[in-house]
Amino acid sequence: MSDRTQVPDQWERGFVEANGIELHYCRSGGSRPTFVVSHGFTDDGYCRLDLARELGDEFDVVLYDARGHGRSDAPDEDYGAPERATDLLGLLDALSIDDPILFGHSMGADTVAAAAARRPDRPRAVVLEDPVWPVEGVNDVIEAGPGDDGEDGPGDDGEDGPGDDGEGGPGDDIEAQVEEWQDTSVEELLEADTMFRDLAERGQPDLARRVAEARGRLRPEIARVFQADLVDPTERYGDVAAPTLIVKADADEPEREREREIAAYLQDGQIVHVDDAGHCVFWDERERATEELRAFLATV
Known about the structure:
Shape: globular
Distance between the termini: 41 Å
CATH topology of the domain at 12-144 and 229-297: Rossmann fold
Number of helices: 11
CATH architecture of the domain at 12-144 and 229-297: 3-Layer(aba) Sandwich
Number of strands: 8
Strand content: 5-15%
CATH superfamily of the domain at 12-144 and 229-297: Alpha/Beta hydrolase fold, catalytic domain
């Protein structure tokens, strides 16, 4: 599968050993505050290049590939939030990153939350993009967006999500899906998958290509994400000490109110809902989501 993703020439690219595996990363560099991005399931770090470029003048942005994704190792181990959090904390140590802002989407939001709860002294701030919560009354009415046919995750909007390991859930067939993606060219994916066509039609063809390329770099071991539990915010969010912003997808008012109740478990948290956004909030409503992010970052 071809790879045409263009990372700025001046950025650092490489691998670090963390938690006994090699993790691939790229980094904008500089002496600015560090902003570390943990991507969602089936994506990789390059899928967040637009956000990195948006923040690159103000932050040293680090994009890394989670285990089993991108160019990182795919160990014969568990793939739950505890393991991924250990990976992330090991990455911070290997790159000598102090006082980072940790940003995570979906699966990556679970990773970041688990890391921040375990080591509340590490992050300067935390941003969680549409975390999926194993709590009654949420994740039921997320507005549909790109990805309804190819990546059925929580809310069927965006990437496949962890925690759907019941009968008939997407975890049942993810290994076969990964093998199919590995045997499909980027051009074929861009043509066949509604998600990619929708992104292109909305003026994001480069993003569509990066996400399609990420599919071809997946390893079947990522199916183990579905064998693990999601982070329960009612049990773990109280351990997160850093100022935290939750950026949630659009939802009806009863679900929004339930999500506000969940955000209240944080020691220093706030939640915003972005109208018309699906699970991939920063892809669906980039300007409004980034505006909310910048307003939060100005306070930390």
